[in-house]
Amino acid sequence: MSEPRKDIRNVAIIAHVDHGKTTLLDGLLAQTGALAVRDQETTRVMDSEDLERERGITILSKSTAIDFEGVKVQIFDTPGHADFGAEVERVLGMVDACLLLVDAVEGVMPQTRFVLRKALENGLLPIVVVNKIDRPEQRAEAVVDEVFDLLVELDASDQQLEFPTLFASAKAGIAFRELGEPGKDLRPLLETILERAPAPVVSIEAPLQFQAVTLDYDDFLGRLVIGRVARGTLERGATVARVPEAGDPERFRVTKLLGLKGLERVEIESARAGDIVLIAGVDSIEVGDTICDPEQIDPLPRIPIDPPTVRVQIAPNTSPFAGREGRFVTSRQIGDRLRRESLGNVSIDLESGSSPETFEVAGRGELQIAVLIENLRREGYELSVSRPEIIAREVDGKRCEPVEDVVIEVPEAATGVVIEKMVARRGRMLSMDQREGNARLTFVAPSRGLFGYRSEFLTDTRGEGVLHRTVRGYEPHAGEIGARGVGAIIASEPGRTTAHALNSIQERANMFVGAGVEVYEGQVVGENRRPGDMNVNVCRAKKLTNIRAAGKDEAAVLTPPREISIESALEWIAEDELLEVTPESLRLRKRILPANLRKR
Length: 600
Prior knowledge:
- The structure is a single chain.
- By secondary structure, this protein is of the alpha+beta class.
- The protein folds into 4 domains: 3-201, Rossmann fold; 203-292, Elongation Factor Tu (Ef-tu), domain 3 (Beta Barrel); 393-476, 2-Layer Sandwich (Alpha-Beta Plaits); 487-543 and 554-569 and 588-598, CATH 2.40.50.250.
- Strands 20, 21, 22, 23, 24, 30, 32, 34, 35, 36 and 37 form an 11-stranded mixed sheet that branches.
- Helix 9 crosses helix 14.
């Protein structure tokens, strides 16, 4: 018989990127005493990965548990970027309510729509938190109206439309129910969670059911499986059965069972239905597998995940500098690592490429691919990566391509050039709002049309524009889109670059390398400001003679080279170019290095 467990609540925090999810969770941990004294001075304690701290974004969903008035509140912090939406989709199946954070100034953004749609599809009840209420330009009441309109547009039920609203400043650690109330702490938010988040309705006496939702790794315990006990009781030392997607069930013994308490993982003897736990002792499990009673095999439905929209070709590094910096350089080593990634990250698809040494990696977007490449790079891998390309699908007999919601905020003076560039990339404008000298433009544009646009956009808006993207769905093919409007400056000779050579080139190019850098033939060393590639000898030294010059030599004054990141490089390269990735360097190159062979 199913009964509500009133001693626990399972909640996910969802929002657009940079709306304050992790900061709010810091405040909840501090409010309930779950943070140690040494951690209270640290911000965003849940963002434990190096890349997350460097970029200031959440990449992996993480869980914690706090105690408030005798109730255990199990909370999931989810990514806010659309490229990591699979982390959100997996987590929403384990919770019964969601905290929807919305910025008091920015309001509803593209990712807000995505995460809220997924939450409503899972039948979750939203608790709306308007964050950053302490900003002078806040417009909290208008933002609440935007959230209501979005819920109506997404066909929310009457119960979901009766959402409670709180106003908060996660940075200051305060929340209140009505605008104008003095805020002391986050107690009103915790009280609202207990009042409005439903207790999980479970059957503890029934046979065991547990679904693997996330995989993790511990240096001492090995592979960890994170999930929610859907039914029955899970005990340490018990023999259970794993039900894979294909094949016969496999039995194993639960050697370790861990629960959540603040930032710590504590050993427990058993877990009942509704608890979020970690299991150690199984190496062959995959995301979506069900662990159940071996005497009663009853698997849960697999977790539905939206398909990937972008793919790249990854192969070993074949440049003249291959093997100088990396430890893992062979296709076998790269393939093994990519296969491990696809097992733990269900939004990554891995297939064989056009040659035996090439792997086709598909994901949700350029940022997700870039994060995977950066992780490989830091682990010591050397590889080459092709330009991203979209994954088309057949819908109702028509060839369709992924399209994205694009929200752009720019100074009013830059609206003309932004609209012109977006229309040229097959974007269609849905709305334009003006706020205090800035314009907010909303477009729907094909994903392939946005490749390479971010750098142009920053140039056109002089660094003052903000661009947000999230996948909307699939629409019929929009037609041809013009190629890159600039060419490449290509090294024609191997050697070290010289200031003398670069000084004469920089007038017509933006350089990617400075003086004294070792290059090889076929390496892309700069961006030609006009269409068309240009082969240049960047290693040319100044000729010396024994004749005294009548005039004075001019000193070469070089403009600092443009720094290349993985995301900007993936956006910039063309079909005939590759990104070379090593632990210490990022280089752009032509697929065919010798200039005489490229002409054929």
